[in-house]
Amino acid sequence: MSVLELLKLLKKKEITPYELILEYIKIIEEKENVYNAFINVYKEEAIRRALELSKFEPDNYLLYGIPIGVKDNIAVENMELTCGSRILLGFKSPYSATAVKRLINEGAIIIGKTNLDEFGMGCSTEFSYFGPTKNAINPEYVAGGSSGGSAVAVKIGECAISLGSDTGGSIRQPSAFNGLVGLKPTYGRVSRYGLVAFASSLDQIGPIGLNVRDVAYIWTIISGYDPKDSTSVNVQVEKFDEIFKFKKYKIGVPRHIITDDVDKEIKEGFEYAIKKLTDMGHIVEDVKLNYWKYALSVYHIISSSEASSNLLRYDGIRYGYRADGEDLIEVYFKTRSEGFGDEVKRRILIGTFCLSYGYYDEYYIKASKVRRLLKEDFINAFKNVDVIITPTVPTFPWKIGERISDPVKMYLADIYTVLANLVGIPAISVPIQKSSNGFYINLQIMGNYFREADILDLAEQIFYENNPI
Ligand code: GLN
After folding, report:
1. Atom number, ligand 1, closest to the C-alpha of residue 169
2. What count of Cα atoms within 13 Å lies in the side-chain half-sphere of residue 161?
3. Active-site positions?
4. Are 326 and 333 in contact, with CB atoms under 8 Å apart?
5. pLDDT value at position 466?
6. Total-model pTM
């Protein structure tokens, strides 16, 4: 059931937070061993909190009794924070992320920490130390990633909504693979305080939900200025009831980026979206993104460079896992060799290479310059249009294991999603049709800076209503 429906029941006292949490725990007990969406579930704490909430008046809270899953690279006080990695095994967070605090202050119950590709690096949630999460629609297929656990937990009814993080598509792609709505807000909109850094200039926290309204509702709660994050921006956040105006938009379509590699049915779905939006009275126009074809390479150079620097802190001294060694260097060496998985090591190697003396100008600096050009592409396009649409992902989910030894093929899943992270604009993925294979066809809508309200409003107009499994 959606967050907004649940809130109605809770506010009318047709169900208590205690009764509700027991329902969710029951589903978790039934389904977790198949889907593996959570790394840790905090049943007792959730029940305790639900009982405590019963003493308070529901009307004073925006999320009274709502069970929420939080991706396990986002800090929740006193809960383990593993990032899907062995290297953080046993580490408990001493504080909560700002986004999480805002949810808790509104009466939400954090029911558990969801599975992810280690440190958010991956497209399938297969690169988790805790095993893969299975796709909610067909468990033989990948969940998408890296926020695969956050998506699947919502779809199979283990929580009402969840938080994910998105560095290059990790909220939108798993949302698309499981028939959900996922929003990556503008860079700086949601505080990154308490989000474990992967690539600091790209990372954003955002919601994954059953429908557009739920996602909008949570977005209004977690957004807003936070002095604890120096990249947080102080721009007014719309109120929930100001968002859905059913306005007519000028929609930009970069047709030239829909290449032959895109699945046929996804292409047809995209054409269907264009026709439907035109029929609704929106204006559709071609836009040109001159630098789009470099985006994925630029993304991997920049994100891996930032990651290689951010991940230096896992040295076996400060956090979690520590291997034995004769001296300090050996402790570092063994801890990092044993603690990180293959994909994380690959990114650290790429990043270290791109930043190394002699290659820095050729890779990191060059990529930063192309990133700037790509940004100009978008700034120019937004002079003429309100939003830009693409498919979210070029293909449907693949079978578990199918792409694990072909990382480049795996990375191609992000070809449309990385754009918004590199440019810093908001983007949403919304299911628009059911496909013949049981999965969904999804639309990505990108908006201008701080115009989340536009993309939410338009997404609501084309959203294909579907139910939890
Ligand atoms: N799939 C992308 C990657 O592998 C994006 C990950 C993310 O957004 N955290 O880097």
Report:
1. 8
2. 31
3. 71, 146, 170
4. no
5. 78
6. 0.97
